[in-house]
Write a structure and sequence with these properties.
DNA-binding; homodimer; Dna Ligase, domain 1; 3-stranded antiparallel beta sheet; 139 residues; 3-stranded mixed beta sheet; 44% helix; Arc Repressor Mutant, subunit A; flat; alpha+beta; 6 helices
Chain lengths: 139, 139
DNA sequence: TGGTGTTAATAAAAATTATTATTTAGGAGA
DNA sequence: TCTCCTAAATAATAATTTTTATTAACACCA
């Protein structure tokens, strides 16, 4: 896994710097994290890392598809390791995200939606917003 | 229509100021617009309107569900008049959004996704990202 | 050793929110 | 309908937050 990442970075002319690896593993550990959360986490491992470095790296890692941006209503965008297409369950209260698989049915139904349109579909983004277990029991 | 909006505003203790009405009709005219687009449009009708007023009103109109925020990857959030649940076709190049209906099948399939989870689902957000007709022909 | 890319530390720019004095919408009462 | 009144809204800043650009020093590899 670590090996693969280094190879992908190399393929795109990006060096596997400690900062970069720290950022990636911070995101992997958290699952989904926004810039601040990545920065805070990375800073513990690498106290001198700068916020601008986090921004710059996240941007370039998204550009080479190692990371994926997750735009959210009312929350700052989060980032996740780019893996299989999947959907998200998002808590409106705390912003927690849980991954959930995308079924074939949904992909099929979605394809039907754009039938007849001259639109070149590339990604499906399905987010289910609501209230998570924890937040239901809080208030 | 105009009448309904005024009533809804009143219900929430918001005055039907010219600025507010201008903002709403700018969004209605554009279909989907971000803060800058709303501001630019509104400024033509109402040259002294301030950007802060746009921010403030958009926020409060979202709060009373007259508007809905549409979070987007790589673009600033846009706002739309809150109507029937529907999905979006989003062009990755130009950011244009087209509304498209949400089918019963998709709602059904989505419900199945969260079966068994202690999650109180409220909204489905389905965005299909790709390249629109115009941008396919540009480059 | 020279070149390329990266970084931290800034600085700068862009986006958003807060403050405040003034203006206004809309209801109450004549 | 026509004032008057008041809470709410506004424009104009100012301040803050978020994001991006610049730069000089550093590390790595050919």
């Amino acid at each position: 896994m670590q090996k693969q990442i280094v190879d992908i970075l190399k393929e795109y002319g990006l060096k596997a710097t400690p900062q970069r690896v720290t950022i990636l593993s911070a995101i992997e550990r958290q699952g989904h994290a926004n810039i601040d959360e990545i920065y805070k986490d990375a800073k513990e491992k690498h106290s001198t890392i700068s916020l601008a470095t986090v921004y710059k790296n996240v941007t370039s890692l998204v550009a080479i598809d190692l990371l994926k941006e997750v735009a959210l209503n009312n929350f700052k965008p989060k980032y996740e390791i780019n893996k299989q297409p999947h959907s998200h369950i998002v808590c409106k209260k705390c912003g927690e995200i849980e991954d959930i698989s995308l079924t074939n049915e949904i992909e099929f139904d979605t394809a039907k939606l754009i039938e007849g349109k001259d639109f070149l579909a590339e990604d499906i983004e399905l987010n289910i917003y609501g209230v998570c277990h924890n937040c239901q029991n809080v208030g």
